[in-house]
Automatic annotation (TrEMBL):
SUPFAM superfamilies: 2-methylcitrate dehydratase PrpD
Similarity section: Belongs to the PrpD family.
Record domain MmgE/PrpD N-terminal: where: 31-267
Source organism superkingdom: Bacteria
Protein name, per record: MmgE/PrpD family protein
Organism per entry: Xanthobacter dioxanivorans
Domain MmgE/PrpD C-terminal residue range list: 298-470
Example of a GO MF term: lyase activity
Amino acid sequence: MSRRSRWRWSNREDQTLNEHIRIGTAELIGQRLADFTETLDGAAIPAAVRARARHLILDAVGIALASTQYDFSHRTLAALREFGAGDGDVIGYPAARLPLRDAVMMNGFLVHGLDYDDTHTAGVIHATASCFPTALGMAAEVGASGTDLLTAYVAGMEVATRLGAVAKGGFHQVGFHPTGLVGAFGCTLVAGKLRGMTAKQLAHAQGIVLSMASGSLEFLQDGAWTKRMHPGWAGVAGITAAALARNGFLGPKAVYEGRFGLFPSHLGTYFDPANLALATEGLEEVWEVEKVAVKPLPACHFTHACADAAMALRAAHAIRPEQIAHVRALVPAEVVKTVCEPVHHKKKPQNSYDAQFSIPFAVASGLVHGRFGLAELEQDALNDATTLAVAHKVDYEPDPNSAFPKYYSGEVIVTLADGREVRHREHMNRGASDRPLTSADIIAKFEENASMALASAHVERIKQAVLGLDEGISARELSRLLAGRA
């Protein structure tokens, strides 16, 4: 067969595939998301949504800067430098210039490094940690404006959060981390949007990234560092898939609902076809960005309600560690595998990452210290005999009144040595969409985190630049500023 004949056959095949874009009257999810991404106009995004998006980005930048002060970030940067230098900026590292994909990998790692980054509660996904580094790196690469960066970020967030919501928490039950797994699809559309790709190309790109998306929860066994790399890897996969599709590479069309599509293949018995509608429901009418929860505590969002409940009990009843006989923590049944098991590791965390995913340690920290912040994750705090003794008294039970996944509810019941029982419930976790941190709260959190790495004048410049993304700053200018090169 001649090259020209093969080209004609390929086009005929593609036309046939396109004729099957619709199954009955339902458009394939990938095509609908591609259409949404291609046509999304920044001017059509409501002002309140854009404002919230800017504050979510500001939160992410502050966390990334704080992460530069920890050993895990230095080791990761050293590894990525082995692949050579490039033009990509790394947040908080003025001397580090990496190739685009490696810079995105590193920036995603920094945003997610302290597990302090935002969470879309229904999707159970840290979407900003992948969508923002991808948007920052790609927008700087193509010379886009801050407005274009923000628009692409919003597009990716709207996609990733909805895809996560389809699973109803099921990915965690079978050992997949949606931040890496689902995040790759959002990043693909972020990269494609900034490359000016057509809806047809964007549809193929999602099919391509289906073979790249990944993220295992095995780190929960021993506090390994692998979760930190998931958002950046999602960005790497997304940029790669977009480039392949842009150059004519073909991907499968039934990306999400096909026989071996994302949801049937990764959810198994947790897959409910009725939930597929959530992937496209309300596009351009309901903005999921507004439902993203900003974390008030530097730990897995599943621990927050119980940690806050423990702090509230300590404050209300002046509880002393020696008074505590036993503690029951009520948690959503869906989060048990993540923050309650294996029990022996959760009651004696092996490192800070282990502690960030431990209900017993979070509750014990709240009861003993009245806090559960970055200081409580330092090695001395992890080895504190009093905290560990209380942690060993904490047992968990499935919460019969849980509102998961709308809220990450939690309740703590303390039995005192004199037989009294005191309890406190946080049905709606602090930071949830119906109990959000305010813009002022987010700014204060950013300033506290960023000040761990930068002088106050530089912190203020970054704050003004991020909150003014719609006011003329270019993506390259922002990228240099965040790296400390401007």
